[in-house]
Amino acid sequence: MSDDLTTLHDDGVLEIPISLESAGNSLDGDSIRNGTDALHEVMRGHRKARAVLLVGKGKNFCAGGNVAHFGGADDRRQFLRGLAHDLNTFTDALYATQLPTAAAVSGWAAGAGMSLALHADFAVGEPGTRLRPAYPGIGLSPDGGMSWLLPRIVGLGRARTILMRDEVLNAQTALDLALLSELVDADQVYTRAREIAADLANGPTGAYAAIRRLLMTTYSNTLSEHVIAEADAIADLSITGEGVEGVNAFLAKRAPDFPSARN
């Protein structure tokens, strides 16, 4: 299934572009809204996606919001509030699907592009990849969940420095800080991210969903609450098709077939 802006591949990977080359790879509102609609279709069972791949259609993953549009708006506050709402609705849907997510982060991931790269479970970059908050450079504060995710990944002190100094992070620094998961040659970014997304789609999606939920509640749960959540998750997974298949395959000394075991 495909439309102008999203593609559901035969292997269950839902590919969502977040920026278009025609707009200088700035965050594309139509693409974001279309991606949200596609994710909602997944939640309704109308699209059988098992993993998500975020891409930029051009030399950059996403160069941030379209500042010219900000400046030309009759009511900047209302305009920016609407953009933030659309982006938040997209990221909410991204998590609500409970699908593992990969991102092909070529070139710049700035502003909202950096925020979206942080939301990916696996972000593949290349030597020319650059991450930058960008918001302080135009007198604004982050959106898209950047100020929530960044300190959870790099720590509060480092996040404060990156955000307030509007640091440009090169590819190796982003990798060292775990903002990128791996680096490949520039012409291999999409291929590698696509490969990872396909592997995730072929894997135990129920386990992935549980892992993501547990990680996201690490800082809000007490230890006692968290180990109970872990116990509930592993017990619940043990009677799913994937859980049964995984254990049976291990005992039979064969590779598990998770796609055929989903229920």
Automatic annotation (TrEMBL):
It comes from the Bacteria. InterPro entries: ClpP/crotonase-like_dom_sf (IPR029045), Enoyl-CoA_hydra/iso (IPR001753), Enoyl-CoA_hydra_C (IPR014748). Coiled coil: none annotated. It comes from Gordonia phosphorivorans. This is Enoyl-CoA hydratase/isomerase family protein. Belongs to the enoyl-CoA hydratase/isomerase family.
